[in-house]
Amino acid sequence: MPSNDRKLEIVTAVPDRAMVIFAHPDDAEIGSGGVVARWVAAGCEVTYVLCTTGDAGTADRSLTPAALAKKRADEQRAAADFMGVKHVVMLGYPDGELEDTRAFLGDVVRAIRRYRPHTVFVHDPYRIRGFQHRDHRKAGIVTTDAVYPYARDHLHFPEQITSEGLEPHKVRELWYWGMDEPDVIVDVTESIDRQVAALVRHESQVPGFNVPPGQTIGERVKRHAAELATGYGFGYGAVFRRLVARR
Q1: 67 phi, psi to nearest 5 deg
Q2: Pick the residue with more confidence: 7 or 138?
Q3: CA angle (175 as vertex; 245, 108 as ends), nearest 5
Q4: How buried is 94 (Cβ within 10 angstroms: 0-12 exposed, 13-18 middle, 19+ buried)?
Q5: The model scores a pTM over 0.90
Q6: Which of 75, 107, 113, 187 could serve as a FRET partner for 223 with CA atoms 20 to 30 Å apart?
Q7: In the prediction, which pLDDT does 5 show?
């Protein structure tokens, strides 16, 4: 939660294209859903890049990994469709097995070069306060490297240029969610209901969202967003750590 004595920059600008890169189905809605809903409503073209199948994300022992993966893919598509996300890329890595490999890096570089986002959202891999899923760290690290310098420079993954017809692309801004110290905040008052409605489409995950007794996931999300917005003149906020590329 941002400190009252250190105001965050309020970001109101909306880019033409954005991308959310995330480890598991539902991470996008949790980490950036309010901003994505707001930006889509303002005309931003958004692409989702889902890294894993989520095939280990359940306490239900009756579900096979294959059945769970299909269920979670369907839930993610339903959530993305509801949010108005234009493109959904599913890389298909096993849940819990993301590694910082050249293949994974190449997949993320390819997505960036194909869909050419101005802004990329991802898990902050450098958070040290509290636990974080290993897949989140790996997705954050690989995405950071893909943004700079790999997607930008033509001599990295040159086969994507010579054989696939892609071109290098320079991402202008990288936004981390789940950070220790945020530096920007976005007013999501008008879009938070859409974020919640997309989130609950991940029906297989709702029991594991650690919602206190007598409270819904929507109430939990809104309470946290209201706390973040305290002192900023709007009802609900979403915070991030932003890196801006030199022009």
Answers
A1: -65, -40
A2: 138
A3: 80
A4: middle
A5: yes
A6: 75
A7: 54
